[in-house]
Structure formats: C-alpha cells, structure tokens
Amino acid sequence: MSEQLVFIVFQDNDNARYLADAIMADNPHAEMQHQPAMIRIQADKRLVINRETMEEELGRDWDVQEMLIDVISIGGNVDEDDDHFILEWN
C-alpha cells in the first residue's frame, strides 16, 4: 500500500466487530488488524461505511453516528451523511 492510507480504529467490543464485518464487506481492498483491545481497518486512499450494509449486519435500523461511540481514532478526510461515512484523501 502507498503512503495514502486512510484508517479507522475501534475499541474491540461487540459493536465494533459488527462494524468491522460490514466495513470489510464494502471494502474488500481494506486490511483489518486486531490489536490489543482495538480493531484497526486501513485502506489505500478510501474507506466507505454504508448504513445499509451495517443494518443488514445488525438486523436493525442503524444511525451512522452510533459508531462514533466505539471510534478511537481516524485518519483521512471525513465525508458523512445519513447513509455513509467516508474516509479519503483528496
């Protein structure tokens, strides 16, 4: 991968595991690393978190803002709306 990595790091808990599965489903180019007490997902230039995929994973309605409870750190520019949370370098 190049030096244009974007990333998101979550506390390692039940919610974050669902998030990680949904993120990996939408971003097959991404790399997931389990570290002590956290999950880091990184990708070259862009990561997309889709509300629809997360709702399928959870089996319920999901608000994009819910994930911020579990976020430890992010790297990249954020573009967020009701349906997506996107990290990318422009």
UniProtKB/TrEMBL annotation:
Looking up Gene3D superfamilies in the UniProt record yields: Monooxygenase component MmoB/DmpM
Say which domain of life the source belongs to.
Bacteria
Database matches in Pfam families? MmoB_DmpM (PF02406)
The entry assigns this protein to a family as follows: Belongs to the TmoD/XamoD family.
Q: Which UniProt keywords apply?
A: Monooxygenase, Oxidoreductase
A single GO molecular function term of this UniProt record: monooxygenase activity
Kindly provide the name given to this protein in its UniProt entry.
Phenol 2-monooxygenase P2 subunit
